[in-house]
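Re: that chain you flagged

S.,

Sorry for the slow reply, it's been a week of failed gels. I finally had a moment to sit down with the sequence you sent. For the record, here it is as I used it:
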Amino acid sequence: MRVIVLRYRNRRVSRRPGMVEESPRVFEHPGLLASREGTATMPTYLTRCLRCERDLPRSEFNKNSRRKTGLQAYCKPCKRRANKETRRARGAPSVPDEKRCSKCGDLLAAAEFCRDAAQKTGLTSWCRACVNNKNSTLTAARHEADPLKNLPVDRKHCPRCRRVRRVEFFCRDEGRRDKRAPWCRDCTRGANEEQRARNPERVKAVQKRGHLNYRLKQFGLTRAEYEAMIAACGNKCEICGSPPIDPRAESPVLSIDHCHATGEVRGLLCARCNHGLGHFKDDPRRLLLAARYLLKHRRPADV
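Prediction finished late last night. Pasting the structure tokens below so you have them in one place:
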């Protein structure tokens, strides 16, 4: 534990009348944390946890107005462990069929309450309706106090650049309530560039895995089925017999070839053969005409 040294000046009257001499006195206070400069401008006092017997800052304790210190006797990690031990010793709570809500006073079924293992009954003291009403009231009050929450429908606040912009500057996100991404397009692009510059190998691996998972989901295949197809063809193209080739990727994989009319998966091809079939519209007649054309114009050196 670091000890901070506070220097005070003790004024004492010297023997000569009319003269005051100042001499420094040093006090060592073990209950203070040292700052970076070595001086305590705003000291942080330590409190001892009765369970782990460590001296920790007051922020590591929950509040308890019943105690003289205003804090719990245990620190937050010790309090969580003690609660778990108490619940384990108590056993699984017996959930009643009905319970009275302490807020509205109605006798309701157990399904109208949320689960709470810390309670003896295994249910919360308030019913779901009372909890929802309280949360709605707190949310409305918070929105009224915050002007950024009362924006027009066509405006949205970006917490990264702290600007209010039109919703067109935010990407679509169906998983969110407002159907828009939390950051604007510029901030999202900048964050992605920072992530790529900080760890490019991880970003490439994630992109490759995400692209493969997207293709498997698109064709209704599992990873086990895809690996079985790779083992069957020996990780080579089923047309030319060459390994996977993709100049844009460091570790290329075989492409999943499918019928554009029915969507049925046909096999695994390299990128060149897969693109070639696409350019020929998957038409065997065109492929035969192309082969006849090549044979017609073949030179003796090509034999």
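What I noticed first: The domain at 221-296 is CATH 3.40.1800.10 (His-Me finger endonuclease fold).

Talk soon,
D.
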